[in-house]
Write a structure and sequence with these properties.
By secondary structure, chain A is an alpha/beta fold. Chain A is built from 21 helices and 25 strands. Chain A has 5 domains: 109 residues, PrpR receptor domain-like (Rossmann fold, 3-Layer(aba) Sandwich), CATH 3.40.50.10660; 82 residues, Ubiquitin-like (UB roll), CATH 3.10.20.600; 71 residues, OB fold (Dihydrolipoamide Acetyltransferase, E2P), CATH 2.40.50; 160 residues, NADH-ubiquinone oxidoreductase 51kDa subunit (Rossmann fold); 68 residues, no CATH class. In chain A, the strands form 7 sheets. In chain A, strands 9-22-21-25-23-24 form a 6-stranded mixed β-sheet, with helices on both faces. Chain C has one domain: Alpha-Beta Barrel (TIM Barrel). The chains are: A alpha/beta (657), B alpha/beta (197), C alpha/beta (293).
């Protein structure tokens, strides 16, 4: 592997006067990029400290940081690392790192290093191929060998006559690029082209600095919009966004796992052979963090037995009901009288009784979330649906706008918040227009249009974007006075109060380029995923993989004979992406995109070495597993798997302590 | 991490053979790539096969992604690659006996070649000048890369090459002035060393 | 003759600037020079000015010399690397060209051949330094020159009416440090600004020639004011040209203004330099109205 370290220490003739010119020095070194990620520390920092100490200089401190040129993060790290008594910062980094520090530090900043050139720009792999980015690619004329980088004179009309034995006049170790070009073209029977091609003249005005600088500012704006990092994966929502919401045909049998929420599994209230009605409670919440379960059809319980859970893959106790097709309502399903006079406690009880959980995916019991020990001033409704492909929430908002607004008002009352904000991404202008028209006369409800960016819907991102508040590390939204809820959940709150209907169905998007006829359906909880896929025309071919949820955070399933859960917002079928992980090359892209501002590259590194303390120290618990690092990783390392393992091991390590 | 723009449609049409295979690299993700235009071109050209993937500059990844398409690749008379120059060269090195053509031109992107694009750049000149210029790089911030002060071509603080570009040397002067360090500009005459490795 | 000798004698030096043609026929240029520039000390020849490709400055200087004019060879860093610059300096010395004006040069992007590769291997400061080395008998590579080293009058430019005077002075100081022996300024229209500048620049003890462009009309002057670096025009001067467009068009107002600026600044500078831009014919009037010829 090539090592593309971009700097080296200056010589002593420059370093000594530099160090002698000041005192109380703070030495700040970059941990380098684009080199093999080894466990060893980089030596330059200590070397420099040694020289300074030899000169009798006082060192106020030393720090080694990752990716100094990452301005947003470096700014924060610098505040933590900079000692009070430092008078001058000596930077060990490439020109970018030095300029970044010079840009953000109030102290004088000195460079202790010179940059190292490689004669071109490398790719996202440590190979020898370089590109000069000349704006006028010549590779088509030269058999794919670059005459700009590989020829020491960057000639574009053939060799110069300076080569001897195939080697360049500048360096006897270096091949003459034009000899290689000639040989390759000859092997392709194209050598004649060299003579017949028109005369090439380089155009140095091709590189348009205006385009580049406006591009750089636009991409920086996008990346820092609302919160740091995140991604803009291809959305492909057009597959299903214009297909109207339809009721999915009644399933013959539903399988309702007793564990489909965060917390303890529910206790079954029915047994095989019993007849149940629609909306009848069949599982009792077992503890504070747990949720009730209800029959989504009327009919006969045929079994209460372990069945395969779609997301964990394990067999969990489930209630199996054969539908009688009558959908006979249970007597508990009736609207509450005088809903406006319900107290906060009444509402919490209803929300708990009706089995409500977060429907954005995490399925956290809603009653627990709403019972905040801290004062809440704002309720944020997540209508972003930032996952690619999914359009379920989109259709919920289009079809149930009034219910959502009703539910939001209920939430505001329950938690005692002054203000409700519904955040919708700008890729859903129809929803924004509709909600705005319906809330224009409501003083304390606001619609916020957010620029599309993944993972905008994550609680902490949403809070930062909408309110500019930072949830502390390890903290919850309520620590900053906020409750975040998904729009589908709020619609279910409305149903629970206005109709007395428990959470027995939800909107699911069935989509992906491999689904014949994508669509958005109202689906009974417990309906087999298999039925959804076959109803949608099946898949286009056999080279297919499935996920429940979106492509970013969804859970891969291999067996379609599993039920739709309360948290299942989508079933997607796509072409499987094969990849083989290679070594981490410290490209820094995972750090660039991590919305939690973590340094994900360390997780697989430390996990591989069993260094769980290291995993913990890199704040693994702040990770919400959004998958941005996986998505961007140039080495295709399954970083999220290492994180999941790391979380488990850190928890185990702490239990031992 | 580099930016690319598609070559003109006519150029691509003229290089692609009747049996062309198209490889599109959509990585570096989050960095500009004319995805839609490339897709349209591919569709119109109707080659014998195509692959859309990312990070083809990594030869292991490239070969892994190409495995499924080997039959078509072997039958292809040309391989057209939509990627930066590194990607095209990587493909080309894997198929030395085939015509491998570039569908894009590549432009430089300021920043560490992988880390978020930055407002400033490092030219890797090998003799860092930042110590005398207040931490603003005269090589990249000045359109002429002057190392002994401004050229006199700036008007209203903007460069003669581009009215939207700040004069690098005015920025340097302002920063040093603010820090009371304009004396640091009195260094001996600097002459760049282009032989530095 | 080196013009530095004249400065040393306390003479007020007058130079004019001519641009070589896009072609190699100098008849017209020489005719104009003979007709109107008899009173100037030396003629300064531009080097692909504004990055527009023209006949070379060195050959034009040689032709002027052959026709009895003293010449100043402008040399920019835009089109030649350090090898070419040094070898051109030696060639100039062979032709007996003794006066130099050493500049960085406009960027290639601003001229008629934006596709060209901009060189800027050296810049104005390091070029002055290079000339000084050659005068000491060594080249930039540290190799000795054969025989008697050349001797030049090393000129440089400065913009006294730039938006940023402090930065200009700092750069001027660097040029002096590198070996600049005289300065020629960007066109001055604001005498007050020039005088203020000179009060600070006189510390360097290097002669400064006041740069002038005869205004051809209100529109033209406005254009210079808005677009040309280092040029700053007081608003009432544009009004003055607007008053009588016919007079302005005939050059009468422009000549008056130019002569007035010379009179106002004369005590603060050691010479004047007129960039003719085609109005060679007005030079005699300017000089006589200014009372310097």
């Amino acid at each position: 592997m090539e090592d593309y370290t971009k700097f080296r220490l200056k010589g002593n003739d420059e370093l000594i006067p530099l160090l002698e010119a000041g005192d109380d020095l703070f030495i700040l070194a970059c941990n380098k990029c684009f080199k093999e990620f080894t466990a060893e520390d980089e030596p330059e920092c200590d070397e420099l400290a040694g020289i300074a100490a030899g000169l009798g200089k006082k060192i106020a401190g030393c720090a080694k940081l990752d990716f100094l040129c990452n301005k947003t993060l470096t700014q924060k790290r610098l505040v933590e690392a900079l000692p009070q008594d430092a008078a001058k910062i000596i930077v060990v980094a490439c020109g970018l790192g030095i300029q970044t520090i010079a840009d953000i530090a109030d102290l004088p900043v000195c460079a202790a290093t010179d940059s190292v050139s490689y004669g071109g720009r490398h790719g996202m792999a440590l190979t020898q191929k370089l590109c000069q980015a000349c704006g006028q690619c010549y590779l088509n004329l030269t058999g794919g060998i670059c005459p700009i980088v590989d020829c020491s004179k960057s000639l574009v009309n053939g060799q110069c006559g300076g080569a001897k034995n195939g080697k360049c006049e500048v360096d006897k170790e270096k091949d003459c690029a034009w000899e290689n070009i000639y040989n390759r073209l000859q092997a392709q029977n194209r050598a004649g082209e060299l003579a017949s091609n028109p005369i090439e003249l380089r155009d140095y005005s091709k590189v348009d600095y205006k385009f580049i600088s406006s591009y750089v500012s636009s991409i920086r704006e996008k990346r820092l919009d609302g919160y740091y990092g995140g991604l803009h994966p291809s959305e492909r929502k057009e597959l299903s966004e214009h297909i109207g919401l339809a009721v999915f045909p009644e399933p013959a049998t539903v399988v309702i796992p007793l564990s489909q929420h965060t917390g303890a599994p529910a206790q079954p209230l029915v047994s095989a052979g019993e007849h149940v009605k629609l909306g009848q409670k069949i599982g009792e919440a077992a503890g504070y963090v747990s949720a009730m379960l209800h029959a989504s059809v009327s009919g006969e319980v045929t079994a209460v037995e372990p069945r395969k859970h779609p997301t964990t893959g394990a067999d969990v106790l489930s209630v199996v009901i054969r539908s009688d097709g009558k959908n006979e309502l249970h007597e508990s399903v009736k609207p509450y009288e005088n809903p406006d006079s319900l107290t906060a406690d009444d509402i919490l009880e209803i929300v708990r009784e009706k089995g409500l959980v977060g429907m954005g995916g995490a399925a956290f019991p809603t009653a627990v979330k709403l019972k905040s020990a801290k004062p809440i001033d704002t309720v944020l409704l997540n209508g972003c649906e930032c996952e690619p492909l999914l359009t379920a929430d989109h259709h919920v908002m289009l079809n149930y706008a009034d219910d959502i607004i009703y539910g939001l008002k209920v939430l505001l009352r329950t938690v005692g918040a002054e203000k409700g904000i519904i955040v919708v991404e700008d890729n859903k202008p129809d929803v924004i227009a509709l909600l705005e028209s319906k809330t224009s006369d409501i003083g304390n409800i606001e619609i916020l249009e957010a620029k599309t960016k993944y993972p905008q819907g994550a609680e902490k991102m949403l809070i930062k974007k909408a309110l500019g508040r930072q949830v502390p590390s390890g903290g919850l939204p309520l620590d900053v006075g906020v409750v975040v809820s998904n729009v589908s959940t709020v619609k279910a709150v409305s149903d629970a109060i206005q109709k007395g209907m428990p959470l027995i169905e939800r909107v699911v998007t069935v989509t992906g380029e491999k689904i014949e006829k994508p669509g958005n359906y109202i689906v009974k909880i417990g309906t087999p995923v298999m039925e959804l896929v076959s109803y949608c025309g099946g898949v286009t071919d056999d080279d297919v993989a499935f996920k429940l949820g979106g492509p970013m955070m969804g859970v891969a399933i291999s067996d379609l004979n599993v039920p739709v859960l309360k948290g299942t917002n989508g079933v997607i079928a796509f072409a499987p992406e094969d990849s083989e992980p290679s070594e981490c090359i410290r490209c820094g892209r995972c750090v660039d995109v991590c919305p939690m501002e973590l340094y994900p590259l360390y997780f697989p590194k430390y996990a591989g070495a069993g260094n769980w303390q290291g995993v913990k120290d890199k704040n693994v618990r702040d990770c919400m597993e959004c998958g941005c690092c996986d998505f961007i990783c140039s080495a295709k390392i399954p970083i999220r798997d290492a994180i999941k393992l790391g979380k488990k091991e850190v928890a185990a390590m702490e239990r031992k302590d | 991490m580099l930016i690319t723009q598609l070559k003109p449609k006519e150029t691509i049409a003229s290089i692609a053979g009747s049996k062309a295979f198209y490889i599109t690299c959509e990585g570096c993700r989050e960095v500009y790539f004319p995805e839609e235009e490339a897709a349209q071109l591919r569709e119109e050209a109707a080659g014998i096969g195509s692959l859309v993937t990312d990070y083809i500059c990594n030869p292991d990844n490239l070969m892994f992604q190409l495995e499924k398409h080997m039959e078509k690749l072997n039958a292809a008379d040309t391989i057209v690659v939509f990627s930066c120059g590194v990607g095209v060269q990587t493909v080309s090195a894997c198929f030395t006996g085939k015509k491998v053509y570039a569908g894009c031109d590549t432009y430089p992107l300021p920043g560490g070649q992988g880390v978020t694009p930055l407002e400033y750049d490092c030219d890797q000149c090998g003799e860092c000048h930042l110590n005398s210029t207040g931490g603003i790089c005269p090589i990249t911030a000045c359109s002429k890369s002057l190392v002994n002060g401004q050229c006199g071509g700036a008007k209203y603080g903007k460069c003669e090459v581009d009215k939207d570009m700040d004069c690098g040397w005015e920025r340097i002067y302002r920063r040093l002035e603010a820090a009371g360090l304009t004396d640091s500009l009195l260094y001996p005459v600097k002459i760049r060393d282009f032989a530095v490795e | 003759m080196r013009i530095t000798e004249l400065f040393d004698q306390g003479k007020f030096v007058i130079t004019a600037e001519l641009a070589p043609p896009k072609g190699f026929h100098l008849d017209h240029m020489l005719k104009e020079a003979k007709e109107y520039l008899g009173a100037v000390t030396a003629i300064n020849v531009t080097d692909n000015q504004s990055s527009n490709m023209k006949m070379g400055s060195m050959a034009t200087c040689k032709a002027l010399k052959d026709n009895g004019f003293e010449s100043i060879f402008q040399l920019t860093c835009r089109d030649r690397n350090r090898l070419a610059l040094q070898s051109d300096l030696l060639s100039a010395a062979y032709f007996g060209i003794e006066n130099l004006l050493l500049l960085t040069g406009d960027h290639t992007r601003v001229g008629d051949t934006p596709q060209a590769k901009p060189v800027f291997d050296l810049d104005s400061v390091s070029l002055i330094h290079t000339v000084k080395l050659l005068e000491q008998g060594v080249d930039l590579g540290g190799k000795e020159l054969e025989g008697e080293p050349p001797k030049f009058a090393k000129g440089a430019v400065v913009s006294p009416c730039s938006d940023s005077i402090d930065a200009q002075l700092s750069k001027m100081e660097r040029k002096v440090m590198a070996g600049a022996e005289y300065f020629q300024t960007q066109a001055v229209y604001d005498s007050e600004k020039f005088i203020k500048f000179m009060e600070r620049a006189k510390q360097f003890g290097v002669p400064v020639m006041l740069g002038l462009i005869i205004p051809k009309g209100a529109g033209a002057l406005n254009f210079l004011n808005n677009n040309i670096p280092g040029i700053s025009v007081p608003p009432d001067m544009i009004e003055e040209l607007k008053k009588d467009p016919e007079r302005a068009k005939a050059g009468i107002t422009g000549v008056e203004i130019t002569a007035r600026i010379i009179r106002e600044c004369r005590d603060y500078c050691q010479g004047v330099h007129i960039m003719t831009l085609g109005w060679e014919s007005k030079v005699p009037d300017v000089l006589s109205q200014a009372g310097i010829a």
